[in-house]
Amino acid sequence: MGALYDATWGRFFTAAYDRLLRATEEAGLREIRREALAKATGRTIDIGAGTGANLPLFPPAVSELVLAEPDPHMLGKLRPRLRDAPIAAEVVQAGAEALPFEDASFDTAVFTLVLCTVPDPSGALTEAARVLKPGGSLLFVEHVRAEDPGLARWQDRLERPWHFLGDGCHCNRDTASAIAAGPFEQLRIERGQTPKAPPIVRPLAHGAAVRSG
To answer: What distance in Å separates the CA atoms of residue 173 and residue 159, rounded to the nearest whole number?
Structure first.
């Protein structure tokens, strides 16, 4: 019964996802995404592509785009959007921790609002590094654990109900530290705020890193 209930909520969440984020995207999140993705070049993989919010934001320097997404409900909304996308893309049903691609096969890997939800963020970052060429770029935009101790305590208190409402999202996950501890170098992180978002998911980290080696 629990699995059925979770699947039903997952369908509802996906159906409402774009509407829930519309005000946030229009208030500035889309421009934060655009600024981060402007650095993408060559063969690029968007890991956890969701419903395709990044599709119109990739620059001409991207020569090939792969969209990896494990959730069948999200894929149901993503695939039709390829018809009107300004860039051709291949969609692959795959989780962030097990990408079906060879080592060192991408120039750029992208995470946007993904690492809060994946079951194993360290594994996802290691897998992104695996498929990146040496010197390849990791680009990210993620809501993160608050630096303010008071807000961080509220994130901890509300993590369980938010995890359900957000279809697996962990509002208190220290994603910035996970990226810093990953197999990357030349890490550049900017801190900011997710516009028009609930306080517990307002702290934002965006930036870039380079695959070590």
So the answer is: 9
Low-confidence ranges of the chain (pLDDT < 70): 1-10
Answer yes or no: are the C-beta atoms of 69 and 78 closer than 8 Å: yes
Whether the model clears a pTM of 0.90, i.e. scores above it, the answer is yes
pLDDT at 3: 42
> CB 63: neighbour CB atoms within 10 A?
11
Rounded-to-integer distance, Cα 142 and Cα 187, Å: 14
Q: Domain spanning 2-211: which superfamily? A: Vaccinia Virus protein VP39 (3.40.50.150)
Structure tokens at 173: 């996950």
pLDDT at position 159: 97
Instruction: Please name the residues in contact with 72: beta carbons below 8 A apart, sequence gap of 6 or more.
Output: 93
